[in-house]
Amino acid sequence: MKLTIAKHCLAVIMVWSVCSCEEGFLDQVPDDRLTEDDVFINKNNTEMFLANIYANVPDEMAQRFVTTGNGYGNSGPWTGGSDEAEYAPWSGTPNEINTGNWNASSDWVETFWSRYYQGIRNATYFMANVDKCVPCREPLVNQYKAEARGLRALYYFYLIRMFGPVILLGDEVIAPDAGLEEVVLPRASFDECVEYVVSEMEAAALSLPNAPAGSSAYGRMTRSVMLAMRQEVLLMAASPLFNGNGDYADLKNADGKQLISQEYSPAKWQRAAEAAKAYISEFVPQYHDLYRKNDSGGNFSAFLSCRDVMLDSWNTEWIFGRPGSDVTTRQYDMTPYHAGALDVSRGGGGLGVTQQMVDAYFMANGTSPVTGYNPDGTPIVNPASGYQTTGTSAFRAPDDSQSRTVYNQWVNREPRFYVGITYDGRAWLNPNTAGLITYTRKTGNSGSSQSQWDFSPTGYIARKNMIVGDRGVGGRALVLYRLANVYLNYAEALNEYDPGNPDILNYLNRIRERAGIPGYGDEVDVPVPASQEEMREAIRKERRVEFAFESVRWFDTRRWKIAEETDNGPQYGLDINSDPPNFYNVVRFETRVFEKKHYLFPIPLDETLINNLLVQNTGWSAN
Fold first, then answer.
1. How would you class 182 by CB atoms within 10 Å of its CB: exposed for 0-12, middle for 13-18, buried for 19 or more?
2. How would you write 468-506 as a 3-class SS string?
3. Of 121, 164, 413, 438, which cross-links 417 as Cys (Cβ 3.0–4.6 Å)?
């Protein structure tokens, strides 16, 4: 592979300052340009080089155009490109995904590949040279090496979940002036990639602190981060996309090497479950626990717990996060247009939530509102749920000061629904503009008649992780991985290899209890799923709601091999070109394109052209 893997060579190294303030290690600004000889001359320069490697950690708050954001960005199309949401027409990459208008020549495909390999290359170079930093000394040098090793493993994980099998560079040091040299290597098999990543995470964990050593270390690699991501890698490897997937029978290197195993292995599920359980045993509750918050009266509030787990930076549930993130971009996208309101509560409102996602949230009684859909997109109502699709009622949302007239579909839903969704007639959450009500109907203050571009394409707007205050206020962190992920990973993996194990129900119900809804078996209308298949579906439903808009759903639908159903064909929302009652009609806003080839990203075209050993992913053009 010619070093487009590292187009951004180190001949001149751009370094980033490490902020010593409470925002943490990744809150960086450009500082200086150093030559290779200067990097390891003192501790400050060495730490700035390490911070430069950290800058590749994705900023998932800038997903409208996936390669923008603080540092190197690396934000993905995961929210607007999944069945959770739809960005307004002025958005870029997510809409290209939804229409199938992308390929191996798309610049952002190349950007992901090159930037993560840049981080990998720089981490390896750092590990090989940090001993030159005499002032650093041990054990600090060992910790720095472990952080770089952990980051390198993390970037490989991000690559393989997008591209599948990739090229493993190992510990080969690529010199800073090697931009014109060629390193022609074939792809390793997916299982080889997994073993490498897991072993590197385990090795890094041995020399890392269990948790951040104070607020200035937030966002840095720790033993907790490494072992949490290890079980995430193993869950992915056990999933249908990579565990005996016959669709990739022909994905082989030029020498005939099979890149994705064709043999299903239940042992992979067992290994994933055991890794998750080991993590829980070591870190819960000493270092992490599910976040819980009481209301002003001192009583537990499921709504505040589910809302503020995202907003209360570095709370006990956070395992991994990014201190510096482009929150103001996402906050603009989640703030409705609000014609005539103060600027602090005016935005684009362009991150529209699909009707399918709205219907995925449970009712307050813990039941699913719908059991399926008719050909026209209208829901098949679960009669036990109490879900109504006609009429209005007086209803007070958990964060509202009074009852309002609300469409019955949005009445008596679970707390996470009110955390996640801004609907027509909902009070806005900025106390500096008290009394502001959002109306997404055609002639409403945030409707399609108010602006050429700034309105929701579905009639709903994503609300989760929206600041409770002025939309332009930034400076807060972004959670990338939390304990709830580990709990539901454990339940899923355990159900696949040991169905009926009581821990499955235990950890699934822990999530539901914190969300303020009955656990399975707690109510007559919420019976314990009776089979492995029913439990699998229950776990998947819980993941969809618990991790809504957290860049999880995209990867879940792909590793489960269900994206051909969830992300293909008609997508539905409300009739945004009407006022009530027609506004409440479910209409198709888009017909999406998802083909089998879309389960994996294509290898960038430029890479395959200069490396004759680099085979293209199944279904994508080789030239």
1. exposed
2. CCCCCCCCCCEEEEEHHHHHHHHHHHHHHHCCCCHHHHH
3. 413
pLDDT tens digit string along 62-86?
887 665 444 457 889 999 999 999 9
- What is the b/e burial string over 456-465, where b = at least 16 CB atoms within 10 angstroms of the residue's CB? bbbbbbbbbb
> Any idea what the Cα angle at residue 298 is, between residues 290 and 413, rounded to 5°?
65
Query: SS in 3 state form for 576-609?
Result: CCCCCCHHHCEEEEEEECCCHHHHCCCCCHHHHH
pLDDT for residue 32 is more than 90: no
Task: Say if residue 10's pLDDT is above 90.
Answer: no
- Asked whether 43 and 58 are in contact (CB, 8 A), the reply is no
Q: For residue 251, what is the DSSP state?
A: -
**How confident is the model at residue 5, as a pLDDT?**
42
Three-state secondary-structure class, residue 163? helix
Band (178; pLDDT cuts 50, 70, 90)? low
The pLDDT, as a whole number, for residue 22 is 33
Q: Render pLDDT for 528-553 as a digit per residue (tens, 0 to 9).
A: 999 999 999 999 999 999 999 999 99
pLDDT (mean) for 548-573: 97
Instruction: Specify whether the CB–CB gap between 552 and 82 falls below 8 A.
Output: no
pLDDT recorded at residue 33: 53
CA 436 to chain centre: 31
Helix (H, G, I), strand (E, B), or coil: what is residue 150? helix
Pairing of strands 437-438, 426-427: antiparallel
Q: Say how many C-beta atoms besides its own lie within 10 A of residue 151's C-beta.
A: 24
Q: Percent of the chain beyond pLDDT 90?
A: 83
Backbone angles phi, psi at 30, to 5 degrees: -55, 140
CA torsion sign for 475, 94, 78, 108 is negative
Which sign does the torsion angle of CA 330, 334, 335, 337 carry? positive
**C-alpha torsion 190→193→197→199, nearest 10:** 110
According to DSSP, the residues that pair with 588 across neighbouring strands are 572
Return d(Cα 574, Cα 577) in angstroms, integer. 9
Across all residues in the chain, what is the average pLDDT?
91
Structure letter (DSSP) for residue 561: T
Interatomic CA distance for residues 300 and 308, integer angstroms: 13
* 34: β partners: 13
| Residue 11 near residue 177 (C-beta atoms within 8 A) | yes
Which residue's structure tokens are 């399926």?
372
Cα–Cα separations (whole angstroms), residue 74 to 63, 326, 547: 9, 12, 20
90-118: b (≥16 Cβ within 10 Å) or e: ebbbbbbbbeeebebebebbbbbbbbbbb
Q: How many residues does the chain have?
A: 623
Q: Are 569 and 592 in contact (CB under 8 A)?
A: yes
Mean pLDDT on 564-585: 97
Residue partners of 579: CB distance under 8 A and separation at least 6: 441, 442, 443, 444
SS3 32: strand
Least confident segment among 91-105, 410-424, 500-514: 91-105
Structure tokens that stand for 210 in this block: 């269990």
